[in-house]
Amino acid sequence: MDTEQTLTLPSRFNSLAVISEFATRAAESAGLDPCAVYAVQMAVDEACSNIIEHAYGGEGRGAIECTCRINDDGLTVIIRDQGRPFDPAIVPQPDLHASLEDRKGGGLGLYFMRQLMDEVHFEFAPDSGNVLTIVKRKGAAS
After folding, report:
1. Mean pLDDT of residues grouped by 10 in the chain (142 residues)?
2. What pTM, to 2 d.p., does this model score?
3. Which residue, of 47, 55, 69, 125, is most buried by count of CB atoms within 10 Å of its CB?
């Protein structure tokens, strides 16, 4: 049986703990193992941090809507914002072989999300804004 819950909070860094707890409870309710629960936490936190910093350009300039959908296969998390459009195709691939000294700060968020989750999809539409859908399946490698 599918269940779905949605949480909407202001785009502030102090909202991250509440959103993370919301996603954690959903992941646990979906029956994900502890490693998969942690992967969901990390991916949701990274996505929401990026929304605050990049989509809205700072705190309190919009809202973050997080929907957690539990089904027999696992968990789907849908995160929406009305910030600047995001096109993952223009994000350069990180140089994972560069030394820490040579690597510029940031740029690993999308890479980490794709490594942590089983599916990662981005969409943008003028009427619905940015929509990130991430999926974690039961029993899938974390």
Report:
1. 93 96 98 97 96 91 97 97 87 68 69 94 92 93 56
2. 0.89
3. 47
